[in-house]
């Protein structure tokens, strides 16, 4: 497999990460291992076979879309084409030099990715970020989630987690989205499912719940609509940092 220009830049950045904080260095090293494991040996062969067989799990269709990678060292790298398979929890990226070649990026290998471009009405920007997720009694796991709040590093974040309808990678049913909420900053606290009700939403805002309730009333926002909940979170994120 040919080495792409963005992959070369990615590993150059890793090589120069000696001055970064220890945690960041560990994150970059872990990301590199996750990438290498996904693109070599039996793991890569299994992934590529599954991508050919499981055609119903792609978010936004099977075609590649212009996008950007958000690497573990904080870089944003434009790539010619991306497609995300929710059933396999796997991002496939076209090589910047050889479009017939692709690279595989599991959730542990990136901070996230963007589909489309800002300001392009034909392909509006969609932001996916790698976050810890916890559903019910299941253990915490890392997933790509689509962020719908204005920023993805604020006090609170709202996002969609996409899965096949029957929760298996080879599902032939449409994808379904689970609404998640939690801290916007990357850390050990996971995102959790959010019930779109007034009481559940306001509980997120703690001592600022009355402020958010007043904002929601003034703006005629609906606690059952994710887009409106995102507006409430955006308002909270603006006022939460004010002492």
| Main sheet overview | 11 strands, antiparallel
Overall SS class: alpha+beta
Tell me, briefly, the overall form.
Answer: globular
In which range does the helix fraction lie? 25-40%
Number of helices: 6
Overall pLDDT score? 89
State which percent range the strand residues make up.
25-35%
Tally of extended strands? 11
User: How far is the N terminus from the C terminus?
Assistant: 53 Å
Q: What's the alpha carbon Rg, rounded to whole Å?
A: 19 Å
- H and E order: HHHEEEEEEEEEEEHHH
Q: Are there runs of 5+ residues with pLDDT below 50, and where? A: none
Architecture overview:
- Strand 3 (76-85) and strand 4 form a beta hairpin.
- The protein is globular.
- Strands 1, 2, 3, 4, 5, 6, 7, 8, 9, 10 and 11 form an eleven-stranded antiparallel β-sheet that branches.
- Helix content is 29%, strand content 28%.
- The chain is α+β, with helices and mostly antiparallel strands and 243 residues long.
Mind sketching the topology for me?
Layout (H helix, E strand, L loop, with lengths): L4 H11 L6 H17 L2 H13 L4 E2 L5 E6 L5 E10 L4 E5 L7 E5 L5 E4 L10 E8 L7 E7 L8 E9 L10 E9 L8 E2 L4 H6 L5 H10 L7 H14 L4
Antiparallel strand pairs: 1-3, 2-3, 2-6, 3-4, 4-5, 6-7, 7-8, 8-9, 9-10, 10-11
């Amino acid at each position: 497999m040919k080495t792409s220009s963005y992959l070369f830049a990615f590993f150059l950045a890793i090589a120069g990460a000696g001055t970064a904080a220890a945690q960041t260095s560990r994150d970059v090293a872990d990301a590199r291992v996750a990438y290498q494991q996904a693109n070599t040996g039996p793991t890569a062969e299994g992934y590529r076979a599954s991508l050919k067989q499981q055609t119903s799990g792609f978010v936004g269709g099977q075609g590649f879309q212009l996008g950007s990678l958000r690497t573990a060292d904080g870089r944003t790298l434009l790539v010619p084409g991306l497609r995300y398979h929710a059933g396999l929890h796997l991002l496939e990226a076209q090589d910047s030099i050889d479009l017939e070649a692709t690279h595989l990026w599991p959730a542990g290998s990136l901070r996230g990715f963007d589909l489309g471009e800002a300001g392009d009405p034909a392909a509006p920007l969609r932001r996916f970020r790698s976050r810890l997720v916890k559903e019910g009694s299941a253990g915490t796991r890392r997933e790509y989630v689509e962020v719908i709040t204005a920023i993805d590093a604020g006090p609170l974040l709202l996002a969609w987690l996409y899965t096949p309808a029957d929760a298996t990678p080879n599902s032939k049913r449409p994808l379904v989205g689970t609404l998640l909420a939690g801290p916007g900053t990357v850390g050990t606290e996971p995102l959790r499912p959010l019930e779109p009700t007034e009481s559940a939403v306001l509980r997120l805002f703690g001592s600022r719940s009355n402020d958010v309730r007043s904002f929601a009333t003034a703006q005629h926002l609906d606690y059952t609509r994710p887009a409106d909940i995102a507006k409430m979170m955006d308002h909270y994120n603006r006022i939460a940092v004010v002492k």
